[in-house]
């Protein structure tokens, strides 16, 4: 148990609660009631394995921070007290203070915002986490995360709108605010709250106004839409802010006051309006995911076409299935799926814990994606093995082991089902409200479009030369592959077109991503779009022509272009996303400064608080 | 668990396994917060927390205090004395005997050759009071140079001079409790939330209980200015004009406290005649505050049942800093706001023990606010120490800012620097560097061997830091508070008082005097010297243990009293010849380097909350340093657009002294014609600053000079930025 001091100051103690029965969102504040009585009150929390129940009379009520934004002086005492208590190194902070500001000297206002975990009613981190490292407790409603369970995929850091979970690239795991439940058990406010020097930060049962406060709003300028997670934080902000407030960090976001008095994110043209290539910036720490998604989708697309097309009775595909090259083609799809799985594992902070990625099938799209892809690989592998004895080369070299057509068909269909599930949840993983740029059906059209395009390319690349050598109707396969490229690229193009239109008018961080897309990566973006259009047109023209040496060479070039298009497009997809994070400060929580510090070598000094090179 | 899982997940929360909490007053600023430092079973400091029942901070700490336990593990500490013949040689390790013998021998040689005053000693506000007293005894009683000063000349000298001119003696007359009873608070050039966050919190607590008007005078829109009821964005360096105009309105409208003035003030007629020239319209054209606003503020202040003023470097660091302080004192004297609850002139001091050095170091005179200029004081101290009274000079010597010019002119040949870093902290760094190169001998005594000034030293003496020795410090409200020793100094580093006593032994006069070994014995000696009728600076009722028990005691606390006294001059009697305070008639003289066509921007400087002074401590603690790891400059976005300067890019600033490379932060916090740079960084703001001196305090005007902005290649600037950051 946390030890209360003899001279513990009065402000450090939680006050008696006069909270209503339900919170702002009409959910019961009594957490036992929220479980429908499924769990008893008075349970031990076993903090650091210590037994005993604290003396806090409200321990089964949802608690929340209350932040008087009018009062915050930006003194960092809350952040410091938190890091001191949790012994966090400089590059990790469970709580951070950033600010927005506006006006013209001397009519200038800065509003500091101190933010940690909001222990949400609908914790998207918990739902997203594939390892089930998160638990929302009936004690205080605390959402606690166990770093030892975490394998460092960072998905919780994607879905959280408040940047609460902290991914430590050195330790390869996430940790976060623990609500100081050890202090709560003995009736003390969290360390950050007790340390506040502006009388801005407070804490208690949710929707129970602190002393001397009159307001419990659910949002302030710069705070993401509370509807995403129903966060347990309330605000007082009575002093007027300018109609437009800006951020000092590198994010090209500012906030504009709407007719309803609410502030909404709009584009701040911090990066100018010049169109650039920024090709080197296309490479990011998400590169493994670029590879993972592309190769997995290629694999699925190719498997679909080759297996299902043959099952469907398409002549040339049946011929391909019966040819010597079917096995190498299947081996390529399984191999690509394997490379994809490997890439997704290297993206983890702790790759050797990959097996924990299936622990939250109930909630996490990451789990379902992972399981789908794994099962696809396994069934595709079985299909490969089942088809192997039919291969002429196998028979020549090893002998006739018989035919396993039923196994091959069943495993093939199972692989198809798993692939659809995997690909669908691969898409669902990116439908994140806190990442508006991804949260659009274009993500699906891109993933499925890529599968069709690159799958067709792969089948074409294997099949057409095969038929040319062994003799066969390569014209049909040539047509199918080209049609796939037209279809896939057109689907992707359609999605991108609607996505751009939607982002342009979205008035959220998605519009900001789109602005970056059109400026910082403007030339790369135009190149990709032009290539996509070229792919559709060129494939379309080639479709009308007979396969000659010239058209086949052109088609080969087209395959290469399709690959390049996909790589640029997918890299853009990852580097462009701008989350709905809290505003940062000039140095701390400023991505642009972090990048600069790494570039010039300042990050090599640990006291700069920037990790020199992410793993 | 509502959701997540059925089986229990372990809840692991860091337990630092503290077995013992040690009491200490904070070693950073002058607020004087009481800290408890937690030691684990190995005796390693692992945690800090505010002392719950301490009167000053009531359990709160600012960011620096929260991580103060990490000081003992910081990089760059000196662990053994170092010596070299020439400053271009590399240092060689030495024993304490070798280092001290050489220092004493060099001092003797130089004094013999060039005279007693050819040695200068520049001390600090960072030592314990007992150490200051010992250093004063050594310098005044043994070495005998008159060129002895502290770095407090860079921060508090104007407050000291102003208090002396107005009230006859130094010593802030008010206390933090005054916030609880005041009816109006006016802050001049003070950014409490950033510089003194705990004092701000005390003020905020008072304001939440009972609202009263808060007026902030500052050319920048700081958080404090933003939270004020009235913000006066004054033109830099023109405080005296505003103060004279406020007095003008008060006298013109008959709002003054006639009876208080009659009973307790000298010089009213002269004041009246002078401020008559500063009508609000005339004043508004100089100080940039409109006439109606001046009248409004004067009325609010004068009509409040009690009103108080606080100020910091915005007043002190100015060419007329002392006049500004006296102007504030004038304002409070004519409204009867001295020595009453909620009515005071409270200078918010800078360093943790700036007050201790003012009181006891003998820098500006003799211990206990005694003056060299007074024969009876010289006699008294000479007798107490066992020194010939004639050994003391009859007039104070050079101050820190005059010592460097005296090195230039060749009057001073040797310099002893104690716990200060003039190479980073003095204005006009190019001039300081050049001066230091001329010295025949320089010794630097500091806790950090990577303190930049060490680069110019012949001998380096490693000092013990906060928590590595025991003794007292005095805070802004005259509260004497105690630091207990809780950890051993690294390697052979020694407490500064040990170094002083050991050095004294190497002089004949020193051998004849007694230098007590422990700080509590030194404290007893100071207590004896503090006694005397009508002496305000009386600590004779205190002891180390009593100070810890009461979490600090405000002087005066005379022998036999139960505790200290919150305020001075409550009886209206001032330590002047006739017992009355002096109202001072002061004309404003424009003498700043103001922006012009070639150098179109004001250069303003100040602190940030996460750093202390020249970053030798805070630059090494990641959880502090990360909030501002490199130099930056606040600049107005409108002027940036005109100059083609971009947010978060580098620019090169040029003044008539030199240049500096900084990263640009665009913000409307600063006016169109001003840039603001935090003062903490080496090779930065003081390569540019001019630092014209106040005629009384000799304090430099750090905050007023002119610069221009030049473009710089961004890659080159990034490289320079890294090169210039040793920490």
UniProtKB/TrEMBL annotation, chain A:
Record flagged with keyword Lipid biosynthesis: no
Pfam families for this protein: DmsC (PF04976), Fer4_11 (PF13247)
CDD domains (alphabetical): DMSOR_beta_like
Domain 4Fe-4S ferredoxin-type residues, every copy: 63-92, 141-170
Gene Ontology CC: membrane
Keywords: 4Fe-4S, Electron transport, Iron, Iron-sulfur, Membrane, Metal-binding, Repeat, Transmembrane, Transmembrane helix, Transport
Matching Gene3D superfamilies: 3.30.70.20
Biological process, per Gene Ontology: anaerobic electron transport chain
Parts of the chain that traverse the membrane: 289-311, 323-345, 366-386, 406-427, 447-468, 474-497, 530-549, 555-577
InterPro entries the UniProt entry points to: 4Fe4S_Fe-S-bd, 4Fe4S_Fe_S_CS, DmsC, ET_IronSulfur_Cluster-Binding
GO MF entries: 4 iron, 4 sulfur cluster binding; metal ion binding
Protein name as it appears in the record: Aspartate carbamoyltransferase
Natural source organism: Zhongshania marina
From TrEMBL, chain B:
Cofactor needs: [4Fe-4S] cluster; Mo-bis(molybdopterin guanine dinucleotide)
Gene Ontology cellular-component annotations: membrane; oxidoreductase complex
GO MF entries: 4 iron, 4 sulfur cluster binding; metal ion binding; molybdopterin cofactor binding; oxidoreductase activity
Superkingdom, natural source: Bacteria
Upper lineage: Bacteria, Pseudomonadati, Pseudomonadota, Gammaproteobacteria, Cellvibrionales
Entry's family note: Belongs to the prokaryotic molybdopterin-containing oxidoreductase family. NasA/NapA/NarB subfamily.
UniProtKB keywords: 4Fe-4S, Iron, Iron-sulfur, Metal-binding, Molybdenum, Nitrate assimilation, Oxidoreductase
Protein name: Nitrate reductase catalytic subunit
Organism per entry: Zhongshania marina
Keyword hit for Oxidoreductase: yes
GO biological process, one term: nitrate assimilation
Domain 4Fe-4S Mo/W bis-MGD-type as annotated: residue spans: 19-76
First and last residue of the signal peptide: none
Keyword Coiled coil recorded: no
